[in-house]
């Protein structure tokens, strides 16, 4: 991997970090800290660990009075290492309960930095979902939402003018109240990762945030700046802002001009992260063009490292994520859990029809995306003409934004798999976006994936996608478990998420979540379609990630056999679709998306 140095002596890595087109800048101070060495008073008395070689009678008797023993002062802060729900425990919390604040030895406050329409909210939403899925309680606090709730002022661009003292004081007050709400949540509501979502555009503001947080125990502050220099991406972000609460129901063209003026107000005082923060030894991540380049400085701590790792691996490419369980197996018919049984005739029929269905949907998505691109292009080109009716200066600015956004794209960006000037060629020559098919290494999943042509799909089996291991309960029915292991039956019924099956290889839902962490990150990294052929627990956990489900729901999502789910990532969430298989007519029928929880006292499902 090529390495160069910037003007400050930081190492800059170019090329493939986890995906093409990304680079990561690091510095000598950015290595992860897994723990500090114990201080002198924490080390054991080495003399007490070795026996004396003198008999008692030979031990010299001291005639000098002993010196007074000075009790060492305890340190205020312990060393901090990684704490993973369900995987580690401390004396503070030997049960390692995912619902307890004590499972995390440190807390993290993420402070967002960036001009409007630079993708801050997109990054915030992704981080909230990711940390909560890992079972770290995470919540975002948005200063703009508090401002809108006040409803005591106009939200036009003039309100954001920093040269108007009264307005500047109001904005500072909104930011201060938002930060206090975050602090209260950390201290009194078992919060672990709090995200302060605001522009935080000046060094002075960022200093005041650090000063306010510095006395909180075990709190690390991490700044994340979102920078956007891609004109097309910036234009699309601005168009999305017009759908937000500040401009809802207003004239789109006037709203666009007003929002551009708002950005100019912020630009008057904006100070990007950089040398000044480094001189203050602040931790920060700079995300450029939605992860095309990531700069990390002074990164320390497990939770902070998770943010860096995740931000290196996501993108805005339009794509579909398909999820389904394997076809019906012989053990499904018998009601036995685990095992490695082959498919039944109905399961074999399902796999053949699944392959045909996915092939059809692959083409339909490409056609739908193409039509949406053309419609958006026409709409924005019309808006560019309308902008000519405004003042000359405003019209020039509006036209540049609209013209940039008029390049064919979907709601959030063009397909990065293709150059902008060739964005339509993939439709003219019949090219289809690549498509991966992932299965587990269990027989029933492998057999389901076998129907997909490897010349048309990238078919791969992954051990991480195997069903939860039921330990000594493998191959048993639930009735047998209840009869033979009543205590285990009740224990799992009490806490299904954390319960770990006894016996060799037995797992819990939390174990499987961390087994699937690399799979989730790889899905986020992909710029093309993927179909995952998994199992009940696997489907629940992956769906829970994309749906942002709470920990109380993960283990109870309803994911029956022969049901196919489709997820299309969007800037502020996901579009979801569900198709149920009709074995009589051998077709898939779209139905309302629903993964309604089963009764929480039902043990009779993995």
Automatic annotation (TrEMBL):
It catalyses: beta-D-fructose 6-phosphate + ATP = beta-D-fructose 2,6-bisphosphate + ADP + H(+). It is an enzyme of class 2 (transferase). Its EC number is 2.7.1.105. One of its GO terms (biological process) is fructose metabolic process. Residues 1-10, 20-30 have a biased composition (Polar residues). Transmembrane segments: none annotated. GO terms for molecular function: 6-phosphofructo-2-kinase activity; ATP binding. Keywords: ATP-binding, Kinase, Nucleotide-binding, Transferase. The keyword RNA-binding does not apply. Residues 1-44 are annotated as: Disordered. Residues 102-318 form the 6-phosphofructo-2-kinase domain. Pfam families: 6PF2K, His_Phos_1. One of its GO terms (cellular component) is cytosol. Synthesis of fructose 2,6-bisphosphate. PANTHER family: 6-PHOSPHOFRUCTO-2-KINASE 1 (PTHR10606:SF32), 6-PHOSPHOFRUCTO-2-KINASE/FRUCTOSE-2,6-BISPHOSPHATASE (PTHR10606). This is 6-phosphofructo-2-kinase. It comes from Schizosaccharomyces japonicus (strain yFS275 / FY16936).
